[in-house]
Amino acid sequence: MGALLMTQASSLAIIGSPAGTETNDVAFETLAGGNASQAVHDLEALRAQMPNDPALLINLGSAYAELGQADRAEQCYRAAMESDVRYELELADGSWVDSRRAARQALRDLTSENLALN
């Protein structure tokens, strides 16, 4: 299982296993292009087919965060952390991280950003 991922902290990653990667569209290019509204639209449509996919949930959370909807972003990140689906994510720096750990980091980044704004 694999996909492109963008987290709240704007770090980019490729999700997959070291042996090979199957890519799913989780609106990476849309998010990277700065179109969070379109990403939410696309990801909410995909969510019906893949409701527990951590990459989709993390990217959806990132899109909501970009739109200033921190509560919805938090819900998505928590859903990714609690998902029964779990796999390793390859981060832009080449390191590998568990999808739950990536979701926790996105949630921490969201919380830190919100604290800094207050």
TrEMBL record:
PROSITE patterns per record: TPR
Superkingdom of source: Bacteria
TPR repeats: 54-87
InterPro entries, A to Z: TPR-like_helical_dom_sf (IPR011990), TPR_rpt (IPR019734)
Species for this entry: Alteraurantiacibacter aestuarii
The protein's name: Tetratricopeptide repeat protein
Gene3D superfamilies, per the entry: Tetratricopeptide repeat domain (1.25.40.10)
One Pfam assignment: TPR_19
Keywords from the UniProt entry: TPR repeat
